[in-house]
Amino acid sequence: MNIEDFDFELPENLIAQTPLKDRSASRLMVLNKVTRELEHKHFKDIKGYLKKGDCLVLNDTKVLPARLYGIKEDTGAKVEVLLLKQNEGDTWEVLAKPAKRMKVGTKLSFGDGKLKATCIETLEHGGRILSFEYEGIFYEVLDDLGEMPLPPYIKEQLPEKDRYQTVYAKEEGSAAAPTAGLHFTEELLEEIKDMGVTIAFITLHVGLGTFRPVSVENIDDHQMHTEFYMMSKETAETLTKIREHGGRIISVGTTSTRTLETIARDHNGEFEESSGWTDIFIFPGFEFKAIDGLITNFHLPKSTLIMLVSAFSDREFILKAYNEAVKEKYRFFSFGDAMFII
């Protein structure tokens, strides 16, 4: 398939720049794969499409305030660092600006010395390995000094850090939020549980590669970035029971989907306690083994995410829904509206 097969016209003013005051007040487009009907609802209406015995699978990753602003100790020149991945101990793979001037041995200071770092390695793609020094707990220092690494298409400042976190975020380590989950409030989740719907959690730490454009024409040639995932024994047992009793497994977001389908692929369609790195690429023709429904946001044209959504339904139906969303002025991307495919 060609990358152009997943293109659509998106006016820039439909890209949501700020989150709604009420998380669950966003709009919801419901797509029925069987009848091919589209319905326009609000996110709180999702309860009307869930039933006792279903299971919602949420990604409990927590976004790190991973963007740091500091100075080079020798010259006082300003630097910007974006944490990508923790290696061993206090060493991290990072992106740095300006990268060319950050040689091995360069010493950095953040927050008037509350956090210091030394460049110990340069990487082929322009990244750097930094070794950090600090007093206390690293994540507390980071929470004090760091900013949320918002996607490149969001130009507004985020006044409250928590609005780029789900209400159930728990496991530190993500470079971006699993945005389908941003629509849930604690109250809505409780109401859903009271209906007899099970809530289960997996973890996938979203990498910045999720924002990288596909640079090949033939999508078969695209290489996905790798991301760390984890499923507990409790979640594996819960999902197995749901399936045995005929309940639907509904994935909240493409990150949950990639995790569930990775595990099902690697364990002959079964759910098992596991963790590791996945580079699974889901596009039309993919055989789903894990999920029965998908809650997701509206994604970038020609992105791997719209390909995944197209694989779960079909490309023509999804593009029809996207064109309808544009016509009805739905809000797109991370802080935008939602879609539920059943």
Task: Explain what the structure shows.
- The chain has 342 residues and is of the alpha/beta class.
- It has two domains: 3-63 and 160-341, QueA-like (3-Layer(aba) Sandwich), CATH 3.40.1780; 67-145, QueA-like (Thrombin, subunit H, Beta Barrel), CATH 2.40.10.240.
- The protein is 19% helix and 27% strand.
- The chain is built from six helices and 17 strands.
- The protein has helices at residues 138-145, 186-194, 233-244, 254-266, 304-312, 315-327; strands spanning 27-31, 38-42, 55-59, 61-63, 67-72, 78-86, 91-97, 107-110, 115-122, 128-134, 171-174, 198-204, 227-231, 249-252, 274-278, 293-297, 338-341.
- A nine-stranded mixed β-sheet has the order 2-1-17-16-14-3-12-13-15. A six-stranded antiparallel beta barrel has the order 5-6-7-10-9-8. It has a two-stranded parallel sheet with strand order 4-11.
- A hairpin with a 4-residue loop joins strand 8 and strand 9.
- Helix 5 packs across helix 6.
- The radius of gyration is 21 Å and the shape is globular.
- 37% of the residues are buried.
Count the domains.
2
Counted beta strands: 17
CATH architecture descriptor name of the largest domain: 3-Layer(aba) Sandwich
Order of helices and strands: EEEEEEEEEEHEHEEHEHEEHHE
How far is it from the N-terminal to the C-terminal residue, by CA? 25 Å
Mean of residue pLDDT?
A: 95
* Classification by helices and strands: alpha/beta
The CATH first-level class of the largest domain comes to Alpha Beta
Question: How big is the Rg?
Answer: 21 Å
CATH level 3 topology of the largest domain: QueA-like
